Amino acid sequence: MSQSTAAARVPTRPIVRPASRERPQPRLRVVAPAPRRSAGGLALLSVGLLGLGLLVLLMLNISIGKGAYALTELQRQQQQLAQDRQALAEQVEAASAPDKLAAQARKLGMVPNPNPVFVEVPNGKIQGEVEVAKAPRKSAVKAQATAKKVGDALAAAAAAGKSSVHKTATKKGSTAGQTTDPKTATKRTAAEPSP
What we know:
The chain starts with a helix and ends with a helix. It is built from 5 helices and 2 strands. It has a domain at 44-133. Helices cover 63% and strands 2% of the residues. It has a two-stranded antiparallel ribbon.
């Protein structure tokens, strides 16, 4: 019974199919073919793009080559400057050796101080006794030797100057047919007849 009651309750409807609508068939007709583009334009465009690409590649290659030459030159300059710097550093190191500094100080008239004094930087406290350094007196023998060397140097310079003046005068006199040496002049005048 339960099945019959369930069937009684559900109403049955007849299945209605929608009426099919018929579409009108389009009329077919022959269409003229579309105008074809020439393949020459596409080929010309392709060749142009290829040529432009090659030109850009060539310019890029040239700029890279110039950059490589510039880089090589700059590396050479850097190496030369590094060598110069090393040589200058060696010169500074040699000139700042203690014996060289002492010799330069003596040339400038400085003397060593046997009594060093120290100053503490934070508080300014002075440690040690302040004394003026005095140059040792030169011995009389050293002073005489130095004076003799200076005198010899001046005499040699004077002699060199006199001989160069004499040589110059001799050259000028020989070109003019006359000499300025008194000994030669007297011999020449004695040999030449007087007018």
